[in-house]
Structures are given as C-alpha cells and as structure tokens.
Amino acid sequence: MPDISLTTLVVLCLAAAAAGWIDAVVGGGGLLLLPALLLGLPNVSAAHVLGTNKAVAIVGTSGAAVTYVREAPVQVKTAVRIGLAALAGSMGGAFFAAGISSDVLRPVIMVVLLGVAAFVMLRPSFGTATDAARRRVSRARTVAAIVLVGGGIGFYDGLFGPGTGTFLVLALTAVLHLDLVTASATAKIVNVCTNAGALAMFAYQGTVLWQLAVVMAVFNLVGGLIGARMALRKGSEFVRGVLLVVVFSLVAKLGFDQWNA
C-alpha cells in the first residue's frame, strides 16, 4: 500500500462508502470514488488508480446485487446474459478507446443525459411499479436488451465509462419495462459481470493496490448494502430522485472536464 496519511485513508474509506450507496441505489458511484482516489493518490499511476477502483467497486456492487436478488423480483438469467454481452462489449470498446478523443464524446453524452433528465421529470410514471405492470415484455425486447443494452452500454463503458451504471438503469427501465428498483437490481448483476472482466485484466497487469483496496472495499460493501436496502424499502420514487441528482452531477462533471480540457 502506498505511504498515505491516516486522514487521507479515512477520507478514501468514507468516499468508498458513499460511492457504494450511490451505486446500489442508481449507479454512478464512480463519479465520487474515482476522483477521490485520483486526489488521494496523486503520485500513483492512473492504471493503478483504475485497477484499485475496480477492486473496491466490485465488492459493494456484489453485495448490493445479492441483497436485491433476495428481495426484488429479478430475472437472474436475463441479467447474467445482459452482463455477458456487456462484458464482450466493454472489451470491444476498450479496443477502440485509444483512437477516439474523449473531448468529442463529452458533449454528446451531456446532451443525451440532459434529454434523459427531461424525460424522467416530464414523465412521473416512468419506472414506477404501476407503469411497469401495465406493460408486457416480448421475447424481441429481451433480445434487444441483451444485444443493445448489454453490448451497447458495455461498449460505451470500455470506450469512455462515466455514468455506465446510470445508463444501465435507464435503458433497462425503458426496454424491459422494469420499475426503477428492479432495474437497479438488474443493473447491479450486469455491473458485477463487467467489473469482474475489468478487474481480471487489471490484476493480470499487476495494477491493483490490493491492501488499500481491501480496506476501502469493506466500507464500499457497507454503503452498498445500506443503499440496496433503502432502495427496496423506499421504492421507485426514492430511486427516481437519486437518479436525477446523479444525472445532473454527471452532466456537471462532464461539463467541467470539457471546460478544462
């Protein structure tokens, strides 16, 4: 583990807990965890920061996924199929990542996110249990979820990354007509698949600070378990509110990155 102060370690652990909570509710915990690691470990390579981030995040995501599967009506087989497609897509995205500038992608993603926020605000029934219950999911929609949601968002995750969990929740709600709680649950299983693939690669390359990751992962797990239980208890309206906060936070972060690029 790098030589860091106790204060920095405490701040990183608190950030890991908060990121686990955000990830469990609606995705997007990386918006907090990755910048915290970058600021807390200024002398550590970007590859080690990314690898450590994945090692921490997968623990909280896995804990949240188990909690959701036990208490929410999740179709685990469908979620795993989407996850495997996302894993393949992320590998493809990573392959092309070196040839595409993030400066080009940021404005496009910002516009998409603002459109998503407007849609969610203007359609209060989006992602509610009542809205989901009225709609049947055809086999074609399930295949579309596997190919487009899994492969497409997985490709985006490998290519660029920010907001992947949030995009998964929104896409699963729209394509499979899930309520937001069930979509969050399904997204966690997909995230476990993609994180596992990425972590395996980082571990193979030796770019994971395992001692630090283990300590932070404990806090991330606690945050993830609390977040999942809160989402299950408070329901879709609560998830919807957190979703909007995360979407606007992501837009602000992308805008800041674009301004300083």
DSSP helical segment count: 11
Termini gap? 31 Å
Judged by helices, strands and strand pairing, the structural class is: mainly alpha
- Average of per-residue pLDDT values: 82
Q: Low-confidence runs (pLDDT<50, min 5 residues)?
A: none
Helix percent reads: over 70%
Overall, the morphology is globular
What characterizes the major β-sheet?
none
Keywords:
mainly alpha; 0% strand; 261 residues; 11 helices
Describe the structure.
With 261 residues, this protein is mainly α. It contains eleven helices and no strands. Helix 4 (76-97) packs parallel to helix 7 (139-159). It is globular, with a radius of gyration of 17 Å. The model has no long low-confidence stretch (mean pLDDT 82).
Topology of this structure?
Blueprint: H1 6-25, H2 30-40, H3 46-71, H4 76-97, H5 102-122, H6 129-133, H7 139-159, H8 164-176, H9 180-205, H10 210-234, H11 236-259
Condensed summary:
This protein is an all-alpha fold and 261 residues long. It is built from 11 helices and no strands.
